[in-house]
Amino acid sequence: MRLFTLLLALWCSIVYGQTNHQSDSICLQILTARLDSVGVDIDSLLVRLEDRMIDGKYFKNHSPQNYIDALRQIQEDENIGFGQWAISRTDEEVLNNLNIKFGVLESGVLQVAKTDTNSYIFKRDHIYNEIVAFKDINVGNLTGCILKYWVAEDFNSNLYRLTFFKLLLGIYNPSEGLRIHLPDYSDSVRDQKNEHTIVFEIKIDSDDIIYANGNEIKLSKVTDALKIFLSHSIVVDSDDGMEEEPTSLIISFKNQRGTTVEQYVKVYNEIIRAYNEVRNELALDTFGASFKQLDSQQQNEIRKQVPMRISEAEPIDD
Predict the structure, then answer these.
(1) How many whole angstroms separate alpha carbon 132 and alpha carbon 142?
(2) Helix pair 2-36, 261-287: axis angle to 10 deg
(3) Measured between alpha carbons, how far is 39 from 300 in angstroms, rounded to an integer?
(4) What end-to-end distance do the CA atoms of the chain give, in Å?
(5) Per-residue burial over 144-180, b = 16 or more CB atoms within 10 Å of its CB, e = otherwise
């Protein structure tokens, strides 16, 4: 009986660990895609933010332990000297507008992520709830809540690093306070003036069946279908003859309640793969090199031609 209990406990720890890793992974993928859609590379953003901390007095290098050390120093410092941590206006706006809510993981699809004390969602939710419970949001309360749930190992992930700086911005701009109610991430679905908008809908039902614009489609066919869509352009008549009309291409990604997180992750990966492959092919045609081999200016040119616009809807019932 003891052996059975031990084996059951081991199995549960393995399953919970895999699920936790999976939920954290999809959260990071979603944040990376949201940043990418506005032309921001997550690694470059974090390097800039960390460098600012290094220029000040809170970071010594880029190691995960620095995040915990910085929180402890900030907690003990009565006069926060963030004048030395002057991040750019652009990076500040990126952090302010970044939505760190994840509909598919926070609407019952993956309940274990909300109850597993090691998951990002569990820790983030408890930090936010405790901060909200304080009548006075101050530096001590904020850093105390974070230190209660986060450890140095967490900061091996860009997911925690990015959230750290978003929370820290609440200290950096004390007049605004901590933004508990985050703004909707609307950049990916904003219609541009004088643009035709075309939407390609990907939907997963409660039985994990995938539909593309209402038609059932196999997972292996999703990337190819999206690549054709992303290469689409509208040609219209003009006084000077035929010309291309600016086109806003949006991928609408929906799922029904009951969709498994495994299927959600697989389909999401296919969407990202489609964007990456189209950008890579365009880079080869335009510059004769892969997207990763391009410099930042060239990559931004490709991003402008193939902007990542994914509309993530809340889970639906039908």
Answers:
(1) 10
(2) 40
(3) 7
(4) 45
(5) bbbeebbeeebbebebbbbbbbbbbbbbbeeeeebee
Location of structure tokens 């809510």:
101
Task: Give the neighbor-by-neighbor strand order of the sheet with 215-216.
Answer: 215-216, 210-212, 196-204, 247-255, 310-312
Q: Classify residue 237 as exposed, middle or buried by CB count within 10 Å of its CB (0-12, 13-18, 19+).
A: exposed
- For residues 132 and 152, give the distance between their C-alpha atoms in angstroms, rounded to a whole number: 24
Q: Residue 286 in contact with residue 46, Cβ under 8 Å?
A: no
| Residue 282, CA distances (Å) to 288, 293, 298 in order | 9, 13, 11
The model's pLDDT over 246-289, given as tens digits with 9 standing for 90+, comes to 568 889 888 887 787 778 878 888 888 899 899 999 999 999 99
Round to whole Å and give the CA distance between 72 and 137. 17
Who's near 318: CB < 8 A, 6+ residues apart? 256
Residue ranges of domains in the chain: 2-172, 187-312
Share of the chain above pLDDT 90, in %: 20
Question: Token match 């859609």: residue?
Answer: 37
Q: Each residue of 33-83: pLDDT tens digit?
A: 888 877 788 999 999 888 888 776 678 888 999 899 888 887 776 555 444
